[in-house]
Amino acid sequence: MPLIAAATGQVPSRRPVWFMRQAGRSLPEYHEARAGRGMLECCFDPELVCEITMQPVRRHDMDAAILYSDIVVPLRAAGIDLDIVPGTGPVIADPIRTAEQVAAMPRLDPASVGAIASAVGLLVDELPAAKALIGFAGAPFTLASYLIEGGPSRNYERTKTIMLAEPELWHRLMGSLTDITITFLKAQIEAGVDAVQLFDSWAGALSEATYETYVAPHSSRVMAEIAGCGIPRIHFGVGTGELLAAMTRVGPDVIGVDWRVPLDVAAQRVGCGAGGRDVAVQGNLDPTVLFAGDAVIERELTRIIREGERAVDAGARGHILNLGHGVLPNTDPDAITRAVELIHTL
Amino acid sequence: MPLIAAATGQVPSRRPVWFMRQAGRSLPEYHEARAGRGMLECCFDPELVCEITMQPVRRHDMDAAILYSDIVVPLRAAGIDLDIVPGTGPVIADPIRTAEQVAAMPRLDPASVGAIASAVGLLVDELPAAKALIGFAGAPFTLASYLIEGGPSRNYERTKTIMLAEPELWHRLMGSLTDITITFLKAQIEAGVDAVQLFDSWAGALSEATYETYVAPHSSRVMAEIAGCGIPRIHFGVGTGELLAAMTRVGPDVIGVDWRVPLDVAAQRVGCGAGGRDVAVQGNLDPTVLFAGDAVIERELTRIIREGERAVDAGARGHILNLGHGVLPNTDPDAITRAVELIHTL
Question: Domains in chain A, start-ordered, CATH in brackets?
Answer without folding.
Answer: 2-343 (3.20.20.210)
